[in-house]
Amino acid sequence: MLELAGSAVEGLRTAFAAAGYTVYGVAARIGEQANGALARNETAPAYRRTASGDPLDTMIRLFLLQREVPESAVNKAFPGIDLVALGIVELSGGEVRATLDIRPFAEDGREWWVVADLTPGLDGRREPMRSDYVLGIAPASLSLIQLTVPIKAERALDIGTGCGVQSLHLADRVNQLTATDVNPRALQLARATAALNHVELDIRDGSLYEPVRGERFDLIVSNPPYVISPPGGDLTYRETGFTGDAVVEQLVRQAPEHLTDSGWCQLLANWTCVRGEDWKDRIAAWTADRSAWAVQREQLDPSEYVELWLRDAGLHGTPQYTSRYDEWMRYLDEQDVEAIGMGWITLHNVAGSLDAEPWPYEIERPIGPHVLHRFERVEGLPADLTGLHLRVADDVIQETTGQPGAEDPATIVLRRQRGMRRAEQVDTVLAGFVGACDGDLNTGQILAALADLMDRPVVDVLSDYLPQVRRLLIEGFLDY
Ligand SMILES: C[S@@+](CC[C@H](N)C(=O)[O-])C[C@H]1O[C@@H](n2cnc3c(N)ncnc32)[C@H](O)[C@@H]1O
């Protein structure tokens, strides 16, 4: 099995850098169309663009297209490195094939190489997945990276590290980084990823918080195996022996005892929406008296959910598809599951409560800075807002609609271009208030002036509008 250290690491790094095997280098070589096709798991367009046999073409064909390349080309691309002995490729009849995926990855202006198992299902191939399959950089991995609050931390924990991609992303703003997994193969590939990128990683074997008993962290991130599936599913990267959504429940419930005061826990999650129960109450029971925010990005009915994950496992069209489908539906039905929520949970280890909402719309990416900002507002706004001098945020636009020729608009919507890209319908008074927020008068003075204009008691206008002003502050429409 793969052990990367010392001269092998330096040799690979030098070879990749010399060839220009970076996100930009690959994109420039194969072009936009082939890049798009590759994102859809189609390799033919990129194959046509990589015929020169130079080291970059060789690396792309070997790792990204999973094609055979001549041994001589591999020797030229990786001079003096025995990829076969390292366990990265296998050689047969003068042709070389990759046994692992090593690919460039970039985020926030930084670049790395990530070691994972080969992407399954390229070019429509149907391949059974090994149960200890180690997932590479998936869309969910990127979602969590982009959700992570941009803080510097003394200690951080990456639960279910897989190929180590979350840890890579955290490395340069965390002093001590711990990564855990239950899959020995994942631990090994995470170790290889860390070594290849000169990242110091304390890698531990064990389930959920077991390997860090009694320890506390400033930041915990996890893209856990959250798939809610009946017993018998054996894909470690996505499912566990836990019943229903218990894996997510345990991660959330036990987070406070592993967080420093004011520490953060951020998870991607699936949760069950049980008949007769509000999903928000379910998550609120897990986050208890901590400050938290749960966002449901998508909700699927049981059949949509089962189809999604059966396809993910490559089972669509196989003989066991319908029986597994039926078994899975029965399992969800037995637990009274009427839908499954998919989204994220952020818990801040300070006293507070849960905000939970469905938000299936486009958001700014990365969203992490906005998450941090929103918590600061929820937890830090003064009880009395009247003394604040507010300014409307730069990204807010106002949209009005109504009958042609009408004197007043029928609706006024304030829309943010950034963060969650929220839209808030407001009345003419609140629109007037926001329009007057240029930092000059304070909130109490503006609302008093509006009360005067409307000939209403100031106290009534304050009680009507201050809660709405608070909401606009929390959601970033207004700054102070
Ligand atoms: C969806 S993958 C996430 C991989 C990677 N962190 C990412 O963001 O792409 C989930 C990972 O959790 C690991 N895992 C499964 N059961 C676990 C458990 N009980 N405790 C900790 N990790 C577990 C799997 O082996 C897998 O590597």
Describe it.
With 480 residues, this protein is α/β, with parallel strands linked by helices. It folds into three domains: 6-99, no CATH class; 139-380, 3-Layer(aba) Sandwich (Rossmann fold); 391-479, Orthogonal Bundle (Arc Repressor Mutant, subunit A). 37% of the residues lie in helices and 24% in strands. The protein contains 17 helices and 18 strands. The protein has helices spanning 6-19, 23-39, 44-48, 55-64, 71-77, 83-86, 139-147, 165-170, 184-196, 246-253, 279-287, 302-312, 321-334, 368-380, 428-436, 443-454, 458-474; strands at residues 69-70, 89-92, 95-98, 101-107, 110-116, 153-159, 174-181, 202-205, 217-222, 259-274, 290-300, 337-351, 354-358, 391-392, 396-401, 411-416, 423-426, 478-479. The strands form five sheets. It has an eight-stranded mixed beta sheet with strand order 8-7-6-9-10-12-11-13, sandwiched between helices. Helix 2 (23-39) runs parallel beside helix 4 and helix 16 crosses helix 17. It is globular. The mean pLDDT is 96.
For the report, how would you describe the main beta sheet?
8 strands, mixed
Cα-atom Rg, whole angstroms? 26 Å
What distance lies between the first and last C-alpha atoms, to the nearest angstrom? 56 Å
Bound compounds, each kind once, are:
S-adenosylmethionine
The CATH superfamily name of the largest domain is Vaccinia Virus protein VP39
Tell me the helix content: 25-40%
Oligomer state equals: single chain
Q: How many helix segments?
A: 17
The domain count comes to: 3
The global form is globular
Please indicate the percent range of residues in DSSP E strands (runs of 2 or more).
15-25%
In the CATH hierarchy, the third-tier topology of the largest domain is known as Rossmann fold
CATH level 1 class label of the largest domain: Alpha Beta
Q: Structural class, from helix and strand content?
A: alpha/beta
The counted number of beta strands is 18
Overall average pLDDT: 96
